[in-house]
């Protein structure tokens, strides 16, 4: 029975193809062709949309990864750009006297204590306890000390930072240190006989072998007379707390030991002592 039905359907399909019955049906019943075209169009559109959706999701995921990488590169680029900009502003000519000295660029790494902005770690290793001078833009910025082999920058205003200076045209000596006001410095141990006044310029003296003579510090804004000394309040030229880079200065000059040389007496000259004894 099944074979008969299959044979009959095969015959009907063959006759319909032979006598072009399908074309006749399409011509007579156009809605069938429209339904067919609509069906094919919907299927194609659905397949295309389905493919686009998954392709779009894959593309979005790929773009997210690329965007994350670009953000990381942007952060690195911005960081390097800021560092180069800072270095561009920092790298200026420094008038260092012609003596045996060593100048190096150092970078501020971080604060040592978050409640003290005048004490910072520097990217430098120190082998001994020699105190170095810290310079920025031809101004004194502080000193550098050794802490377990690492450089610690004690900036102007730090209570542990002090170095020798000259005040005014007469070069009155003194020691500069911190002040109660964070924006100011104080010079102590100025001799009572020193003629200093408001507006006098303060420079490094080099007498402590930390800096060379002539590095600018600031100007005197107030003079206080005490019984045994004078104290000058100084407004520094530069705010060192905002700096990211400094120069370290180290004098490598060797001091000559001047020994007293006994003058030789000429052969034909009698020593002074012998003259005295002969006269007696």
UniProtKB/TrEMBL annotation:
InterPro entries: Cell/Rod_MreC_2, MreC, MreC_beta-barrel_core. One of its GO terms (cellular component) is plasma membrane. Gene3D superfamilies: Rod shape-determining protein MreC, domain 2. Pfam families: MreC. It comes from the Bacteria. Residues 157-243 form the Rod shape-determining protein MreC beta-barrel core domain. GO terms for biological process: regulation of cell shape. NCBIfam families: PRK13922.10-6. This is Rod shape-determining protein MreC. It comes from Arcobacter suis CECT 7833.
